[in-house]
Amino acid sequence: MSNIVFATPATAAPTQTQTLNGNSKENGNYRSDKPYGTHIENAGGFEQPNDLLNPLHGLTKEQIFYDVEHFCNNNGLQDKLDIFKKGALIAQAPEDYERIQELTEDDKFYLRKSTKNKWSHPKMLYFTVIACAIGAATQGWDQTGSNGANLSFPAEFGIGASVDQPGGARDEWIVGFVNSAPYICAALFGVWISDPLNNLFGRRGEIFITSLILIATPIASGFTHSWQALAAVRLVLGIGMGAKAATVPMYAAELSPANIRGALVMGWQLWTAFGIFIGFCANAVVKDTGRIAWRLQLGSAFIPAVPLAILIFFCPESPRWLMKKGRYVDAFRSMSRLRFTEIIAARDMYYAYVVLVEENKVKQGTNYFKRAIELFTIPRVRRATLASGVVMLAQCGINIIAFYSSTIFSESGYTNSQALYASIGFGAVNFVFAFPAIFTIDTFGRRSLLLCTFPLMAISLLAAGMMFFISEESKVLRTGLIALFIYIFAAFYSVGEGPVPFMYSAEVFPLAQREQGMAWAVAVCFGFSSVLSLTFPRMLRALKPQGAFGAYAAFNLIAWGLIYLFVPETKQLTLEELDSLFEVKTMDFIKYQTNVVTPHWFKRSILRTGGGSVRPLVAPLTHQVAMPARNGQRYEDEETKIM
């Protein structure tokens, strides 16, 4: 069996030592009937903990209180000592707070309120989420500005030759480069400067700096007079897009309670979709302004960045970032603005602290490059890197529609004006169908949403491509069916692959590697988005719409397989509890999916002979809670075995 190491006193203390043996545990005046770490020997011989391990379990009340006193005294929180003692007891057994005698009825009232009504949280939390949503809207609007402009700026700059004309193939590559320029720069540079910007200026400061870039560059793009200048401006735009995209979801994840973190962080996709929709609307509004239409379409993307730059300074800084900087007083003040009571704030903050202590034990890198290398050298982090890379890689195909929907609709037989209006329909579907994910992402789960929607996305893309075989003589039928299946694709995308990747990547990395991990994930998304955006114009000519859509349908099926094998479920786990999930070796996870989950699903769903559900495979962690000397004695390691 696996062993877990806890810190216990070297000499006998007037408390009981905890054992994780599946029985009830006495903890001073507190008794828990839900022990963590209990194993069940089933599921094909795989060993599964009954609950994810909590580093505070195995500690007596005396030990917890001593640790809390040391924590408060060392971090300027002496006046909050009693509050943190209560918070630590709740963090040890968050579901059994009713039995904690130290809590008052008022304390229990707010704990019940936050537990029974998962949407009941302070207004400041939702205000901050709204600010993050505006940051997402800037992303969507920046994407769609070039969509409408594609219909006119190539001719303005003399790069609009068709493929059968001299220089036509070259012009298509140039148009692809101009469209993909923000993503190229974001992947190669923008996302990677988010780490030093976060380190120097914090989450809020980094978002403010990037919002200034997102104000200036769209305006500048409207004043360019050559494709080279436009490409250069859009490269600078990519710096802001990349750095912001790597920070905003991470910032939202660090502020959000675990039980609604998915719904709040997926606001990135919801409001990115809203930005895409509004961008399409703006494209249509200015379509009749003549030769300056494309300039207005590109330039209008600065609009949502203005309120973002203003509102972000009314939001609290990330408590976890402040703790990382050793600013615990500020961290508690910030956390208290995001929770109903100081007791709940102390619970979340102290739990994050004890796990941060554990993470720092395996942290190796002290500079930018060493921390980047840790994404691939620390096993737990490497698995998060793989999983986030897979979900981000699977997302990039949607940008073909976001960038080129007007071109695609034009190819199907629409006029330019009709293509713009059809693109508005795509944006509306993308936005509206993101709402169901708010209510399912924390219950049905991230992984489940992906596995259910990817096959449907592949079918709808393939069907859209096949509609191009309909004769142009049946123009109404042809254009209508192409639009229909593209809309169906957008609906399935918005429920699954739309909301999951950015919020999944924002939550799976430990705090020590979170900035670098999110940068990696966004770089994967933007890097492959730039490749697809660059190659799509040429691919559309070489393979025809039928071949292009068929290829992307195949990519969706490949993505489904990668998600099934490499992406674990993370719903309703705290950012700190995810460590046990990603401690499972990759091959063990694959074997579990193929040998246990798949047969169980087949028996239950196809043969109708099975029942129940299969628990996620998690690994027991080795925790050694750091406890300093007390009265001249030091806590030593005592091995506590899981029976």
Automatic annotation (TrEMBL):
SUPFAM superfamilies per the UniProt record, alphabetical: MFS general substrate transporter
Transmembrane segments: 124-141, 173-193, 205-223, 229-252, 264-286, 292-315, 386-407, 419-441, 448-470, 476-496, 517-536, 548-567
Membrane topology recorded in Swiss-Prot or TrEMBL: Multi-pass membrane protein
Coiled-coil annotated residue ranges, if any: none
Any GO MF annotation of the entry: transmembrane transporter activity
Entry-linked InterPro entries: MFS_dom (IPR020846), MFS_sugar_transport-like (IPR005828), MFS_trans_sf (IPR036259), Myo-inositol_Transporter (IPR050814), Sugar/inositol_transpt (IPR003663), Sugar_transporter_CS (IPR005829)
Gene3D superfamilies for this protein: MFS general substrate transporter like domains
Compartments it resides in: Membrane
GO cellular component: membrane
Keywords recorded for this protein, A-Z: Membrane, Transmembrane, Transmembrane helix, Transport
GO biological process: myo-inositol transport; polyol transmembrane transport
Domain Major facilitator superfamily (MFS) profile, chain residue ranges per copy: 128-571
Organism domain of life: Eukaryota
Keyword Zinc: no
Catalytic activity: myo-inositol(out) + H(+)(out) = myo-inositol(in) + H(+)(in)
Family under the similarity heading: Belongs to the major facilitator superfamily. Sugar transporter (TC 2.A.1.1) family.
Protein name, UniProt field: Major facilitator superfamily (MFS) profile domain-containing protein
